[in-house]
Amino acid sequence: MWMSQRAVDPADRKLADLRRQLRRLGSVLITFSGGVDSTFLAKAAVEELGKRAVALIAVSPSLPTAELAAARALAARIGIDLREVDSRELEDPRYGANPVNRCYFCKSELFGIAARLARAEGFAAVLDGTQADDLGQARPGRQAAREWEIRSPLAEAGLTKEEIRRLSRRMGLPTWDKPEMACLASRIPTGTPVTVGRLVQVERCEAALKRLGFTQLRARHWEGAVRLEFDPAELSRLEDPALRERVETVCRAAGFSEVQVDPKGYRRS
Question: What is the pLDDT of residue 29?
Fold first, then answer.
């Protein structure tokens, strides 16, 4: 009699490949943000390598305070040592000018710090959380990763965002359904200088909107005005005049002179 067999999930094969990669490396330094991908990678690394896996997070005005606190909590939960380093990309006038390849200068700063620390402490490799879906997108930071010889084991294993979310849920990681998060500088239009003042405005605005119950959103800084992108599923909440008034109030309190709502809703960037 033939025994029925459960089909093997391709994501399980990819996870096994990821684990083999980590074991072969022996020791790793992971650039960590507390997002879906880097958290999943850190979890797998600490399971395979224990204390030979360390996470590193770059602290700068482009990182929301709430995200730093969340990353600290996640690292403690996973059981991985988290190193915090100051990132000074804002001191680079090329980054501050906010060109289309702004992310290159930011990632070059981060990967340079990580690579130097890895050499000093004897880590075999520096890893980032790039996954397979990222490879088909225009990402200037990938050039910096190549220049600093950063490994991307999630992408090498062929793991996609959907698979990482699914495996994260199975592992009990709270980030499995975490909304995508980009640095605060991504809210400033290309060509408009990135300044601490503008980053603070965006951070205060988004934090206040999240306290009002919104989840996936972006507060785009536009010449003194803010253009809000909400998850399309949440746009209907703004039909409540009282809530809309509160939204405008918190945005103005963050320093914006005008408040606009994008009717198309949130779009990744």
Answer: 98
CA 53, CA 207: separation in Å to the nearest integer? 32
Q: Average pLDDT of the chain? A: 94
Question: How confident is the model at residue 6, as a pLDDT?
Answer: 55
Distances (CA, A) of 184 to 1, 25, 59, 69, 224: 60, 33, 12, 16, 16
Superfamily of domain 10-177, CATH level 4: HUPs (3.40.50.620)
In tens, the pLDDT along 184-234 reads 999 999 999 999 999 999 999 999 999 999 988 999 999 889 999 999 999
For the chain, the domains span 10-177, 195-261
| Residue 130 φ/ψ region, left for φ over 0, alpha for ψ in the -120 to 50 degree band, beta for the rest | beta
**Paired residues of 261 in beta bridges:** 228
Query: Which segments in the chain show pLDDT lower than 50?
Result: 1-5
- Specify the DSSP class assigned to residue 151: B
- 3-state helix/strand/coil string of 202-253: HHHHHHHHHHCCCCCEEEEEECCEEEEEECHHHHHHHHCHHHHHHHHHHHHH
> Cβ(47)–Cβ(22) under 8 Å?
no
Which among 245, 249, 246, 251 has a CA at the least distance from the CA of 229? 251
Amino acid 206: pLDDT:
97
Q: Largest alpha-carbon pair distance within the chain?
A: 75
| CATH entry, 195-261, from 3.40.1000, 1.10.3470, 1.10.10, 3.30.70 | 3.30.70
Residue type (1 letter), 179: P
Write down the pLDDT at residue 137. 76
Give Cα 82 distance to the centre of its chain: 16
Confidence (pLDDT) at 15: 98
